[in-house]
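Example record

One chain of 141 residues, shown exactly as stored in the release files.
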Amino acid sequence: MPIDIDGMMQLLCHLSEERGMKAAVKHSGRGALLAGATAFVGGLMGGPPGIAVGGAFGGLLGAWMTTGQFRPVPQILMELPPTEQQKLYDEAMIILRNLDWTDLAQLTALVMGSASVQQQLTAMLVNYLSRELRAEIQYKE
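Predicted structure tokens for this chain:
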């Protein structure tokens, strides 16, 4: 029986929470924008030397910003736009298509009772986060 996207997100959130998964999403576009903006402002205020100083300062600030802060994966999953949630849903359904369930609670119990399915879903989730969001994954210690 198919489940909706919200149900799949709940399942993936539960799995990632059980595994203690956290991710740091790198915001390289934001860092590049900051570096360019500070170089521009530096150029307006100090001419060519101001461009160099502003660019260097903005580059350092941008690099610091792009390191990302580790946040729980469930939080990241729930903030994904609907199109990205649909991609995750489609990938997860490929793994879950051979399981027989009647509702979300039963599917969650089946997944949490099978180390193999958990491993497949976790690998799919890590691959998605790394590929699509360029995130670095960390597990609880």
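Notes: The mean pLDDT is 84.
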